[in-house]
Structures are given as C-alpha cells and as structure tokens.
Design brief:
The chain has 16 helices and 17 strands. It has 423 residues and is of the alpha/beta class. It has 2 domains: 96 residues, Urease, subunit C, domain 1; 286 residues, TIM Barrel. It is globular and about 60 Å long.
Length: 423
C-alpha cells in the first residue's frame, strides 16, 4: 500500500520538525518531496501527530507474557527455578503461541515494530510473528552440557530457519545459548561452530546476577564475559543481554570484540540484580541497546517504560542530571537496536529505509504542552499515546485498533491458559 503521512512532526536525524513521509510497499520512498509517480492509497493527517522510528525491543521472551505477576518479590534463583521454570516447562506449543500473540499485541500497542526473542517452542513464536506482521529476530533457546550435533534443541533451531521464507525479511534468526550456567563450555563451542557455518549470530544472557558471577568464578576462575569469549561467542555477531555485573576489563573486552549489549532496566531492578554500567559501556564504544526482558521478570513489554527508566536510573547512580539524555535513550531503542540485530535499513526515518514507524497522538495530557517533544518521548510518554503502528509498510494498528490480531481471542486464550494453572 502507498501511504502518505501528511505534515506531521517527525523524529529525523535526532531532531523533531514538520515533515511529510511517503511510503511505497515496505519502504520509505520520500521525505517532504513526493516521489515521482506516487499515488497515495491512504493519507494519514499528521497535524497533531508525532512520527518516530518503530521501537526495537532487543531482548525479550514474548511467549512468557502470560507469566507476568506469578513469581514476584523473590530472590533471583528462586524466581527462576521455583517460580517461573515449572510453569514454563508445563507450557505446550499452543500455549506458547497464544503467549507470544499476547506479548506481540502489547508491543504493537506501545509502538514496538521489532523484537529479538529467545524462545523455547519451535515454530510458535515465528507463527505469531508472521500472523501479526511484526519484524522479529527469533532465537531458539539452547541449553546443554556436552555438545552433540544431533541434540534436539539444535536440530529444532536449524529447522526453524525455514520459517523466514516468504516474509520479505521480517523474520531473521540467531542461535540462543541461554547462559553460562545452563550451557556448558563444550556445548557453547559447538553452538558457535554452527553459527559460523550458517552465518548466524549469537544471543545470550551474560553477567546478570551475583550468584552467576560467584559460581562461575569458583568453578572456572572466569567472569561470564571471559567465559563466553573463551568459548568463541564473541567471534560471531553477539548480543549479550543484561551485563549488569561486569568489570572494567569485561567492558574493554566486549568493546574490542564488537559485542552489542542489551540493557533491561526494569527486569534487572525487579530481580534485585542492580544497574548495568551503561555510561561506562557507551564511553568504551560498546553498542548499547534496550530491551524489556520477558514479562515474567518485567511484568511489562512497554519500551517507553524502559526508555524512561534508562534515562533516570543512571542520572541517579552517577549523581549527574546530564547522564544519558532523552536523545541518547531513544537512539538506543531504535538505531542501536537495529545495529545490534544486523538490520541495516531499519531504526531511522530515512528514504530507502524500511517503513517501520510509530505515530503518537500529541493531543494527550502526557504530551501537552509541546515544549520539547524529544524530552517528552523519554520523560513523559507512557506508550498509550501510540495511535498507529506500521511495520514493513503494513498498518498493524490504527486509532488504537489492532488490525492483524484478534485481541479478544488472544486475551481469552491467555487467561484460560493461566486459569488452569491457578486451580
């Protein structure tokens, strides 16, 4: 569909001004100047609207959305092993599908157009992503001790690569070894070998908690960052989630190896794991992006919440109000996320880039008055301002109505799934 967004405020090259944006099929074909031969099939009046690049959730577990609020106020390992894992293990593939649909619906409503997902149920998150129209990077979670090429999880991860066919690049894939405490050294080395062979990247949890650090130090004499590097994880494009408990030498190593780090402020705080040294990582030259983690640890998949927390946390921990400003936080949720995921033509509003956009209604109490709209995105917006979400040129939500998801059915299935487990 050819779409004209007429005379809207738009965030382009870090600043906000009035622009008209032209979309042909999946691409932005023009800004301000109407492309030759362009005929709009749909015109969106941008008078009181702000267009931003679609947000990129660089680390989540969408299928776990129904697990929100089931294991709160617990120590990290108790939360993981006693609270979440038993419910997660009981989920069927169909449960995972409806869980992913619930998470995707929440993300679309908050202006997210791309998510990087570590999941455990083959084909189900990809099915949900396909049906919803979102852009997604799918990573089959991998755990094990000794590497075996015939390992069921690895075979499933390779089988799932076929799910991206016919999606115009909306679906891409990585391998997802879970963490150093769940993936043995030999296993990690084997996963890395497959990643090299298939031209895939790695998505892994690293240095998230004190117990992880202490156990690995006692067992291997290494930090999680050193362990992952020794196993070869940084020899392929690597996205490291969390990195809360890292040393200066860890930071230097990740910078040297071009590792992208995903910080997840709400999840890290809720589980009592602390605050990642984001300013220090940025100063070292690391590409830092932003994620929510799963709803089991965050209780929300709202990237605006993460943007706000990100800007505030580090001002407090570093005792300076000029630490991580609004523009830098928005960049981490868009441009940096695209870079981490290897999505070269997303994350910005530019001619020739993918038409992945979120359109906010400025006539809402949280965005009035329009003193500094960039600041408003970081410090005032809460996600409810998102009126329209477009991914790959397809309108996924308009006037707050989801166009590709039967929300009533999704809500019913998610509630029914968990009601059985509450009895």
């Amino acid at each position: 569909m050819n779409i004209e967004i007429k005379n809207a405020y738009a965030l382009i090259d870090g600043s906000i001004g009035r622009h008209s944006i032209y979309i042909e099929k999946d691409l932005i074909s023009g800004i301000d100047k109407e492309p030759k031969g362009f005929k709009a099939e749909k015109t969106i009046d941008g008078t009181d609207r702000l267009v931003i690049p679609g947000l990129i959730n660089a680390h989540t577990h969408s299928y776990m959305a129904p697990l929100r609020n089931i294991a709160d106020d617990m120590p990290f390992m108790d939360w993981l092993l006693k609270g979440v894992t038993p419910v997660e293990d009981s989920m069927s593939g169909e449960d995972a599908y409806w869980g992913a649909m619930l998470g995707i619906a929440e993300m679309i409503r908050c202006g997210t157009t791309t998510f990087n997902d570590m999941q455990m149920h083959i084909h189900n998150t990809t099915r949900a992503a396909k049906e919803s129209g979102m852009r997604a990077v799918i990573c089959r979670g991998l755990v094990g001790d000794r590497y075996d090429r015939e390992d069921r999880r690895i075979k499933e991860a390779l089988e799932e690569l076929q799910d991206g066919e016919g999606t115009n690049g909306r679906l891409t894939f990585r391998l997802g070894p879970h963490a150093p405490y769940s993936a043995g050294f030999d296993y990690l080395r084997g996963v890395v070998d497959i990643a090299k062979e298939k031209g895939l990247g790695i998505h892994i949890h690293l240095a998230e908690s004190d117990s992880e650090i202490e156990n690995l130090k006692n067992d291997k004499g290494l930090t999680p960052i050193e362990y992952a590097d020794k196993a070869g994880c940084f020899d392929v494009p690597c996205i490291a989630a969390h990195c809360v408990k890292v040393t200066p030498s860890d930071i230097a190593l990740m910078a040297k190896k071009n590792v992208s780090v995903v910080t997840n402020p709400a999840s890290n705080m809720k589980l009592g794991n602390g605050f990642a040294p984001v300013p220090e990582m940025i100063e070292a030259g690391i590409n830092v992006c932003l994620g929510t983690d799963g709803a089991a640890s965050n209780n929300s998949l709202n990237m605006f919440r993460e943007i706000g927390l990100l800007t505030l946390i580090h001002k407090g921990t570093h005792n300076t109000p000029v630490c991580i400003g609004a523009g830098e936080a928005i960049k981490m949720a868009t441009v940096n996320g695209a870079k981490a995921l290897g999505l070269e033509n997303t994350g910005e509003i530019k001619t020739g880039y993918k038409a992945d956009l979120a359109i906010l209604d400025l006539n809402t109490p949280s965005m009035v008055p329009r003193n500094d709209m960039l600041s408003g995105l970081a410090y005032s917006a809460n996600g409810s301002e998102v009126d329209t979400t477009i991914a790959d040129g397809e309108i996924l939500m308009e006037s707050r109505e989801l166009k590709t998801i039967d929300l009533e059915r999704v809500l019913y299935e998610a509630e029914a799934m968990m009601e059985k487990r509450r009895k």
